[in-house]
Amino acid sequence: xxxxxxxxxxxxxxxxxxxxxxxxxxxxxxxxxxxxxxxxxxxxxxxxxxxxxxxxxxxxxxxxxxxxxxxxxxxxxxxxxxxxxxxxxxxxxxxxxxxxxxxxxxxxxxxxxxxxxxxxxxxxxxxxxxxxxxxxxxxxxxxxxxxxxxxxxxxxxxxxxxxxxxxxxxxxxxxxxxxxxxxxxxxxxxxxxxxxxxxxxxxxxxxxxxxxxxxxxxxxxxxxxxxxxxxxxxxxxxxxxxxxxxxxxxxxxxxxxxxxxxxxxxxxxxxxxxxxxxxxxxxxx
Length: 285
What we know:
Strand content: 25-35%
Shape: globular
Number of strands: 13
Largest sheet: 7 strands, mixed
CATH architecture of the largest domain: 3-Layer(aba) Sandwich
């Protein structure tokens, strides 16, 4: 008998992966957590029925949400990760010796425990002595912080359920306040291809530009995410992601990546016209 995991990317589009077995299923205090294994994508994590990552393509998302800002800011020493309980973003950040302190705020401790058990290669950096895990709501945590972080990475789930508060005007305003005077915030900006997702892009972008004077979107190809075309937001108080990008310096670090490179960094900000139109329409309003 064939076993398949399916996720609706729109009312009329469904994405399916053949499954070997279900390795884990439980309801935490916040959400349903499932882990499956598959012949094509390896193990993958599902929260409330939505794909979070697979072993085969997670490197794309985690490299692009971390190395893009790290190649722009001249010296990141203190980082705040919001969400990111799977450990992938932490894995990439801990490769930088200049980083002295990372706060990881993940509301659901069961997500961290499950990822530690089933994805040890992704979570291995959660034990780095520079990293400190806080199990609390990201919106509540950020309210208490001012002028503290060089970089904030909002590695949230989709804009509903436990992650809903991480897409509000209040949240982005508090992120602005929590950054130092030259700080950068990067967030997962959803996909703009299907209309339902494009609505989420418009809403997030509108709320971010109410706090940050500059928010530019950049893109990556992630096969298991809706449409395969994913956006990130780069919001900044000072540094421009292209004009202040130092590719020579980043290359000198010798960090080996599988997706990110300095040429792709530049190209990632060259968006398709339909995406540019969505963002400009929001900015005009």
